[in-house]
Amino acid sequence: SKAKEYLSYVKNLKPNEDIIFILKYLKDYGFPEDWYEFDPTIARSFSYSMGPIWEVEIPEAGYGMSVLGGERYDGLLEKFAGRDIGGTGFGLGFDRTLEAAEIMKLIPILSVAGQVLVTIFSEDLRGESLQVASALRKKTVAVDVYPTIDKLEKQLKYADKKEIPYVIIQGPDEVAKNVVQLKDMKNRTSETMTIEEAIKKLKS
Which CATH superfamily does the domain covering 116-202 fall into? Predict the structure, then answer.
């Protein structure tokens, strides 16, 4: 049939000069040759699309669907701007990308909810406490920051009520020495240590 003939014709198309030029660029930049391939059957439904179409897949995720697609949009820009303006762009499939990241275990999982409470010693030291909290979160430690300025005793009761196992205290002395107090709420013991040591202990 005509349809089969046309499909066979399309499947047997070879890269033109533009595609060959692009593929050479990819090779010269050091991309492994099994990272890309020419597929003449790819098509986009936008009438303003021009030139090569790109689709990005993540084979490590275990499914053969593209997560990113793009091409030149010269026709679209000319339609709205009234003059010939070159342009390129991509559209990201957010759900597919997030699913692939989860499959490949690229999204960090926080240890537990509310693993440590960072107290606020005073308004003057609020910034230092927030910096400590940020450093912990960057290492995937689940952090609660006490929301207001209250007596330390009240902040510790808050940790008890929420069953947060550890509390970090950083007063003027600790700030001056660039250390923190890490309080074990179960054993009611405290240790003074660097933030790096605290992170190591909390992740152990």
Answer: Anticodon-binding domain (3.40.50.800)
